[in-house]
Specification:
The complex is a heterotrimer of chains A (372), B (417) and C (515). With 372 residues, chain A is mainly α. Chain A is built from 13 helices and two strands, in the order βαααααααααααααβ. Chain B is globular. Classes of the chains: A mainly alpha (372), B alpha/beta (417), C alpha/beta (515).
């Protein structure tokens, strides 16, 4: 009965233990994004000082380039537009736990179809409104069909959509390369001729004749499209039966089946929409910014969009916000030379933000562990 | 639920990796070559530079497509920038942006430089042409010079390029002589893109080769990139495998010269005068760009107010083109056969004096690699022919366009469509 | 080393989880060589306490002594080193490996090279010593649940467990298998092993345990010898109030046939036959109980009726509508409600709110919003009224259902299914894992529906439940109906025998081969 203290045969040592948090406390969930961004900036600052730079000056400069002027906002908007559209696209699939990571490929195909209409398949004197409408629909359908392939394979044969959608991205990029170097090439270079003006999405700067202050504000109408889609999606998730079904299936597909939802049909529909929005992002990019199809016209928007959607916790309105932050990061890092430092900084932010989210689900405990 | 969570994490990791691979396709992270140490561009922040104009100076910005440490194209431009700073001293301030992607990003970068207050902007890649043209219209008070394109606006926007084909002709002579001396008859050429510029260089090299080695044949590999160390090396390997004694590269890295050394064969670099440094034993020569004098001349004309937005095309007599081992104060590298040195020196002297130039080289009779006569005897190609121009406003169309391969190139070679 | 009479002493154990005090200053002592039952409702803290004892959790306060020696466990490995081993409710076995391999899996001293003969011999020795018949070379997937449980016990015995903790071991067994287990436990106790037996079934606790500790709301309600205690006393200790064991069940009033299965066949998830020519009928106003040991086609039966599993032959008739290719939506529209056995995996979307789960079956209807739109206020109104009328304890209708207790989640499911006023209600193990109070209310809800004229098919492994509320009983064994009784005429032993395939228990274990 009497309690005995441990005998000396038992050694004790101090150790660190990593435990999974059973439940994330509320304060942690709210603070997570801020902690992560702060950590990323801190690590970035450390690296910057290592190469001899003053992080404060660098960050200041980046912020002022991205957000410090109307032109900065315009440039950031240009970057944010495809990120929002493609981010909304992947978020639709992610809501249903369909890991469509091929948004980049869908974006390329969307751009390709839009280019086809702009340069080859429609008469060159097509009125601008019709031209743009056809390009947008074509871009959407192109991206949708590209995503439909992994969708069908998933729905009918249960083939992993992560792999198929990613692989199709490479196919899309090569397909694009074939056309820009081959049949659609401008003098053998890796690009098509420039679109006629009626295939350009209106830009603010186009109205600088009447409003001189718009001069050089090259942000284009795609941003309104992106914002409209974000609001629409927000409404769909909140207030429609379709959104409810996606939510249920995303949380528990068996429960969806049990409730009489058609899983296969929904998977295909969701992939179509998801790819369609990425395709629309591609259309907006070629029609609003590049004005032609060319190699690497997207610096990985489709992939960044995944991270944007994830950080925004798939909330359509938060996606807009996060896309602007990432757009700002991309624009702001132009200021830094050599270019490797800028890329490194982007990499650090991505890595810390993605990896950190995971780490915050754990806690480290200092404890003694017994061993005999 | 747990597994779903983890698969989500897996997805993110994949994405992060793929993304990582995408944001940094240029292996330009390595520190710049030691020669590239800039004289502290202000406002520099330690090792990191933020390009900003300096009050009271004539501010010149350079937009590069690759990293300044590429040891080739961009390196040569950066040397030109440093030369300019040296030559004009305190009057100018220069800054650069490296590894700028072609396309929409370029337009933004160029516009931001103009907006920031730079007085002149040099853009050094073909893909920067349209963005430069667009921004030049928006900023009539800023001078723009685009390298390797064909657009200009007669006022503040000029294009600049040089007759590298003249030097390539000499390269062909040296390579042919080398193959002959080795008892071989194969030369390899690494061609980046099927565009007039590359085809022009390729043809000039083949014609030079036939001068010193009438039965030599030239093999071609199209690699569809200007800067990709792996692809360039692979193309060199493939050419040597096919029996080449000398491989000449038209792309930007010294990789093929390295491969030549590994094979115990011969290589010819491109772009910058230090392209042979990787293996001078096995490097025959490098035709290189000496952008400094031309940059200095152009900036001086801006300062003087005499700048014209014209098509500027310089030849060897401008002093802006070089052939390693043959310029003033240089001696030929050990691999160059002694018997060819006098004839190369003689031709080079004529080029330097302006006695002969690119048009001399491209004067008929010239046959293509299938034996058809392309340029009849006595006919000389025009500048438009050389540049393969068609439908360019303000320029005449080409009649014998640069879309043929010269005699000496293997007969079954085609220009990829 | 010491002469403490107790194998286990836990003193002042307190364990908190976010928002929950799972164990509150619990004192718990087990004598050497006794069978000690740990009794309590769900959520009373039994599993938490035993997870602490087996090294899975660490207590926030308090200390543990094993054979008088104070110990601190950081992992189950620490615990087993001190002779404490636990058999969990969910077995931790690798299906594709043999019994012997599973026993040796993770054991430290086996080294890199395995010696199959030696391993098999060792398993056989333990199996014989404690009457745990199992073939050491059989693969786990070939074994019945009862046999798998024996493998788990052998596993911890092999690792030197002197103190065995069994978490609700009879939940997955037939009455006969349970009886066999008790024989084994007694022989182990006779061999001076100490056994802690977690349960919420009163009968078996009384029949096997030497002493009983009752937990209620994380605290010890009492520790008392099994001798001389009655079921009612124990139940009152567990619940903290008087419990009625007899439900009021009015005589059956059969109406028309609502559900008819006509020679229905279906496959299981491995595409092997799971249901063979099952025919049965359920009338309006009656409860038909389907008895059987888990894994004999119950799940497939329920899913086939609800359109979640395609029929390979036969037809199902709901209220006169005959279907050979039913889908879930057709069945829902025809008036079939289903309370699935796995509340979390099938019956609910765990991260969605109570309200969203409550409309899972009805969201398509016009009252939930016109056309494609979802009327949130209608959803909240309906949810609030169901929460009230079914007495669902939840902080709010916006709380994710994963935060609800098992009983409250089950009420959410029942509320949803019953509120659709179904013609046919399929209830699969509706009280599994629920405590006495919740069980009581679920059963009375089912009886209430019966009075309203619903046709109810009750699929359950709990024979007591089937006998308590059904009007007719059919026995399912290996996908076939083995017999049908009016409950009034049925005999527990006979039903139990049919559940085991109509053969004597020993025979059925010896020849059982599900391959």
């Amino acid at each position: 009965m009497t309690s005995q203290t441990t005998t000396l045969t038992q050694q004790r040592r101090i150790g660190l233990r990593i435990e999974r948090r059973l439940e994330q406390p509320l304060w942690l969930r709210v603070l997570t994004p801020f902690i992560l961004i702060a950590a990323a900036l801190l690590i970035g600052a450390l690296l910057l000082s290592l190469v001899g730079a003053n992080p404060w000056v660098v960050y200041n400069k980046m912020a002022s380039i991205a957000f410090g002027s109307a032109h900065g906002w315009s440039d950031t908007t240009i970057k944010a537009t495809p990120l929002i559209l493609a981010g909304l696209g992947v978020s639709i699939a992610f809501r249903m736990r369909l890991w469509n990571i091929g948004a980049e490929g869908q974006l390329f195909i969307g751009a390709w179809v839009a280019t086809g209409f702009a340069l080859f398949w429609l008469p060159r004197d097509t009125p601008q409104a019709i031209m743009l409408l056809v390009m947008a629909i074509g871009g959407f359908v192109g991206g949708a069909l590209w995503a439909f392939v992994p969708g069908v394979l998933k729905a009918k044969l249960n083939i992993n959509e992560i792999i198929t959608s990613l692989m199709l991205t490479y196919v899309a990029i090569l397909w694009n390369n074939y056309w820009i170097y081959g049949p659609w090439s401008d003098r053998g270079f890796g690009l098509t001729p420039q679109f006629p003006r009626n295939a350009w999405l209106p830009r603010f700067t186009d109205y600088s004749g009447d409003f001189p202050f718009l001069r050089g504000i090259t942000a284009h109408a795609g941003i309104f499209l992106a914002l409209a889609v974000a609001i629409l999606l927000w409404f769909v998730w909140k207030r429609t039966k379709w959104g409810y079904e996606v939510k249920v299936i995303g949380d528990n597909p068996r429960a969806g089946q049990y409730a009489g939802m058609y899983l296969a049909r929904k998977i295909m529909a969701v992939m179509l929409l998801s790819g369609g929005l990425a395709g629309l992002a591609g259309m907006a990019e070629v029609s609003g910014v590049v004005h032609r199809l060319q190699e690497r016209f997207s610096p990985g928007y489709g992939f960044t969009a995944i991270i944007v959607a994830w950080l925004a916790k798939l909330n359509p309105l938060a996606i807009v916000l996060v896309a602007y932050l990432f757009g700002g990061l991309l624009v702001g890092s132009d200021a830094i030379q050599p270019a490797g430092i800028a890329k490194m900084l982007q990499g650090v932010v991505l890595f810390v933000v993605v990896g950190g989210e995971l780490l915050l689900q754990y806690r480290i405990k200092v404890g003694r562990s017994a061993s005999s | 639920m747990r597994t779903q969570k983890w698969s989500a994490v897996g997805v993110l990791l994949i994405v992060a990796l793929v993304f990582g691979a995408c944001v940094a396709p240029q292996p330009g992270m390595q520190p710049a070559a030691p020669q590239a140490e800039a004289p502290a561009p202000a406002p520099a922040v330690g090792g990191v530079q933020i390009p900003e104009p300096v009050d009271g100076k004539f501010n010149v910005a350079f937009v590069y497509v690759g990293p300044i440490g590429d040891g080739g194209w961009t390196y040569a431009h950066n040397e030109g920038r440093l030369y300019l700073e040296e030559a004009l001293g305190d009057v100018v301030h220069t800054a650069y942006l490296e590894s700028v992607p072609e396309g929409a990003d370029a337009e933004r970068v160029i516009r931001n430089l103009a907006r920031a207050g730079f007085d002149a902007i040099f853009t050094t890649s073909f893909g920067f042409m349209d963005p430069t043209a667009t921004v030049a219209e928006e900023f009539p008070d800023v001078y723009f010079v685009h390298i390797s394109g064909f657009k200009r606006n007669d006022t503040n926007f000029a294009n600049l390029f040089g007759a590298m084909e003249s030097m390539k002709y000499l390269v062909g002579m040296i390579a042919g002589a080398r193959a002959q001396a080795d008892g071989g008859n194969r030369i390899g050429y690494i061609a980046p893109f099927p565009i007039p510029e590359v085809i022009r260089h390729l043809n000039a090299t083949a014609m030079g080769m036939r001068q010193t080695c009438p039965d030599c044949l030239m093999d071609v590999r199209w690699i569809f990139t200007w800067f990709d160390p792996d692809k360039e090396r692979q193309a060199a390997e493939s050419l040597f495998d096919a029996g080449a004694d000398v491989v000449i590269t038209g792309a930007d890295t010294p990789g093929p010269v390295q491969v030549a050394g590994e094979r115990g064969k011969w290589g010819v670099g491109y772009d910058s005068r230090n392209a042979c440094d990787v293996d001078p034993e096995h490097c025959l020569t490098v035709p290189y760009w000496e952008w400094g004098p031309e940059y200095t001349r152009l900036v001086q004309s801006m300062l003087d107010g005499t700048f014209v937005g014209a098509d500027i095309y310089f030849d060897v007599d401008s002093g802006s083109l070089g052939l390693l081992g043959f310029m003033e104060g240089q001696t030929p590298l050990p691999g160059v056969p002694a018997e060819v040195i006098p004839s190369v020196e003689e031709l080079l002297a004529k080029m330097l004096s302006g006695e002969i130039n690119r048009f001399t080289i491209f004067t008929g009779p010239i046959r293509d690699n299938k034996g058809n006569e392309i340029v009849p005897a006595g006919v000389t190609l025009t500048q438009s022919d050389l540049e393969g121009l068609q439908g360019i406003p303000g320029r005449e169309d080409c009649t014998i366009c640069m879309n043929w391969l010269a005699e000496g190139i293997v007969p079954d070679a085609e220009i990829p469509q | 080393m010491t002469t403490s009479p107790y194998a286990v002493e836990m003193r002042g154990i307190t364990k908190r989880f976010p928002g929950v005090l799972a164990n509150d200053r619990v004192d718990f002592q087990v004598r050497k060589g006794e069978i000690h039952a740990l009794l309590g409702e769900n959520g009373a803290g039994k599993s938490t306490l035993m997870n602490i004892l087996s090294g899975l959790y660490r207590p926030d306060e308090g200390e543990i002594a094993i054979h008088g020696q104070v110990v601190e466990f950081h992992s189950p490995r620490d615990a087993i080193r001190h002779g404490v081993g636990m058999v969990h409710q969910h077995f931790m076995l690798t299906p594709s490996q043999s019994v012997a391999e599973n026993v040796f899996l993770g054991a430290r001293e086996i080294g890199f090279v395995l010696n199959p003969q030696r391993m098999a011999a060792e398993v056989r020795r333990i199996a014989e010593q404690y009457r745990l018949p199992v073939d050491p070379n059989a693969k786990i997937w070939q074994l019945s649940v009862g046999e798998q449980q024996r493998v788990e016990i052998i596993k911890i015995l092999y690792r030197g467990a002197e103190i065995l903790i069994l978490d609700e071991p009879t939940a997955v067994l037939t009455p006969q298998e349970a009886e066999n287990l008790f024989v084994t436990l007694r022989s182990m106790a006779a061999d001076n092993k100490t056994i802690i037996f977690i349960s919420h079934k009163l009968e078996e606790v009384l029949s096997i345990a030497d002493r009983i500790t009752v937990l209620r709301s994380g605290r010890v309600a009492a520790t008392l010898p099994a001798q001389g205690v009655t079921k009612t006393e124990l139940a009152n200790l567990m619940v903290g109030r008087q419990v009625l064991f007899q439900l009021e069940k009015p005589p059956v009033q059969r109406g028309e046939v609502r559900l008819r299965l006509d020679k229905v066949c279906a496959l299981d998830d491995k595409q092997l036959p799971a249901l063979c020519e099952v025919s049965l009928t359920v009338h309006s106003g009656e409860i038909v109980g389907v008895a059987g040991v888990a894994g004999n086609g119950q799940r497939e039966l329920a899913e086939a009726i609800c359109g979640l599993r395609p029929l390979t032959a036969g037809a199902i008739e709901v209220a006169g509508e005959r279907m050979t290719r039913p889908t879930a939506r057709r069945m829902i529209d025809a008036g079939v409600a289903y309370v699935p056995e796995d509340r979390n995996a099938t019956g609910s979307a765990p991260n969605l709110s109570v309200a969203e789960n409550l409309i899972l079956k009805s969201y398509r209807r016009a009252e939930m919003g016109a056309g494609p739109f979802l009327d949130l206020s209608a959803m909240e109104r309906i949810a609030a009224s169901l929460v009230k009328s079914f007495n669902i304890l939840t902080p709010s209708i916006k709380t994710p259902v994963r935060k609800l207790s098992g009983g409250n989640l089950q009420k959410v499911l029942l509320a949803r299914e019953i509120s659709s006023q179904p013609k046919v209600l399929i209830a699969a193990s509706p009280t599994r894992g629920l405590d006495i109070g919740a069980t009581e209310s679920v059963r009375s809800l089912l009886l209430q529906e019966r009075s309203q004229g619903a046709a109810i098919l009750l699929i359950s492994e709990d024979l007591d439940e089937i006998f308590a509320i059904s009007d007719r009983i059919v026995v399912l064994y290996e996908g076939r109906i083995m017999g049908e009784f009016e409950t009034a005429d049925a005999d527990l032993t006979e039903v139990g025998l049919l559940m085991a395939g109509g053969r004597t228990p020993s025979e059925s274990f010896a020849t059982q081969d599900k391959g």
